[in-house]
Hints:
heterodimer, A: D-Maltodextrin-Binding Protein, domain 2, B: MetI-like fold
Amino acid sequence: MTAKGFGRFAAMLAAVMLLAACGEGDKQAQTAQSAADKPVPNPLRVATEGAYPPYNMVDPAGNLIGYDMDVMREVCSRMKVECGITAQAWDGIIPGLQAGKYDVIIAGMSITDERKQVVDFTQGYAITPAYFVALNDSPLHQLDLGLERIGLDEIDTTEEAAIAALKDALKGKSVGVQNATIHANFVEDALGDAVSIRRYDTQENLALDLASGRIDVGLADSTAWEAFLDSEAGRKAGFVGPGFDGGPFGEGLGIAVRKGEDRLLDALNAALNSMREDGTLKRMAEQWFGFDASAR
Amino acid sequence: MNPAFALEILPQLLTGAVLTLQLVALALLLGLVLALPVALARLSPFAPVSALASGYIFVFRATPLLVQIFLIYYGLGQFEAVRESFLWPILREPFWCAILALMLNSAAYTAEIIRGGIRSVPYGQIEAARALGMSGPLLYRRVVLPLAWRQALPAYGNEMIQMVQASSLASTITLMELTGVARAIAARTFQPVEAFVIAGAIYLLLNFVLTRAVHWAERRVTHAAH
C-alpha cells in the first residue's frame, strides 16, 4: 500500500469510527431519559418474533397468534392500555428494545444472566425443557442415558456422567441451533469442542435442514419442536436423550423491558400475578402446549 | 465502542473474513469461466442459443440473490430425488450451495459485461485483423477478447466489489463468514456496535485492496495496448 493509499484508507476507517461514536451518544441519551418513574406507555408497543410456534406465529390471514400473544393481550387489558404488537427479526430484537423502537418484548424469550445484564425481565410466564431431536433412523436414538430430565442448576454425579456420555455420542456430529438462543449458548459452552455447530436464523429453517439430513441433530425448546414433530416431515424424527432445564436454560420465559423502567415492570408483574392466581395463565398454557407450562 | 472488546473479537472475525475471501474468490473465478460461453451464446446468430442465454441472464438478474440462495439450499433439499442423487454430497454442504448461487448470479451479470465489451470493439479492428488473414477463434483470442476485456474491466471491477458484499448473504444458510460471525457475536454479547464496526472495517479493507488491484490491472492493459 502506498503512503497516499494508506492515508485514504485511514480516513475511511476514521469515518466508520465516527459513525459508531454517534450510535454510542444515542445510547447514553436514552439511559438518562428512561427514569424509573416513567409511566406505563399507552399504547404499549410490543415486539415479538412471529416465527416461533406455539409461542408466537403468523396465521394464514397474517395475524400474530400464539401463547405469547394471548398472554400479552390479556396483560394489556388488565393494565388498561392499548397493545400494538409488531413482528421483529429475532437476532435484532433486544437491540431494537434498547434503541426505543418498542417498549416490551414477548417472544418466547428465556430469562438468562446474559440477557439480564441488558434488559429487565418480569416473572416467568412459562417454563419448558430443551430437547435434542434427530431423525428416527439416526444411531443417536440408541443412546440411553437413563434419565428423563437434567436440571442444570445443580448437577449431581449421575447427571454429570450422562452429559459426558451425551458429549461422547455427539462427537463429530453437526448440531443445529437457532442463532442468539440459550440453546446456541449451551451447545457452544458444553459441546463446542466436540461438535460442529450450525446456526440458523429461524427454527423453521433448522427443522428443514434436520428433515433433509443436512444436520445430525438439533437442539431447541420442547415446545418449539412440537409444530415440526406434528408435521409430515417431522414424523420421521423424535426426541433424543433427556430434557434440559435450569442453569444456562434460565428461569423460564419472561417479558423483557428496558432497564430501569420499574413502573412498567411492576405493572406487568401485577398483571401476570393476577392471571396466575385466577388460573388464566394455566388455561392459556394448556390450550397452546397441551400441558401446564406456566407452572414454576 | 469498547476497544478492548473489539480487539478480543478480532481473531474470530478474521476467521470469518477468510471464509468470505474463499467464497468471493471461488464464485468470481467460476462465474467468469461460465460467463464467457454465456456471453458468446448471447451474441450467437443462432436464435435458440441466443434465447437460452438471454433467458438465463434474465432470470438471474431479475430475482434477488437471497431468493436464489434459499431456493438452491432449502428448495433443492426438499426433493427426495435430489437427496438420493449423486449431487447430494455437494448440495448437502452449505458452502457449495453458496458457491453455486453466487457463481450463477455473478456469471449472469458478468456475461452482460463481457457482451458489452465485445460489442464495443471497433469494427475497423476486426476488419484489419481479417485483412491479415485471422478468423474464428484466432481472431477472438488475439484481437476481440483482449480489446473487449479492456473495455469491460471497470464494470467487472464493480461486479467484484458487489460480490464481496453479496457473499454476506451466505450467513443465511449457516455459513459463518464475516457477517455471520459478526451477527453471532452481536447476538451473544449484545454489543452489536463493536462487532459490526470491525466487520465493516474488514470489508472496507478487502474492497480497498480489490479496487487498487483493479485500478492497477486497468492501467496495465491500457499500457499494453499502446
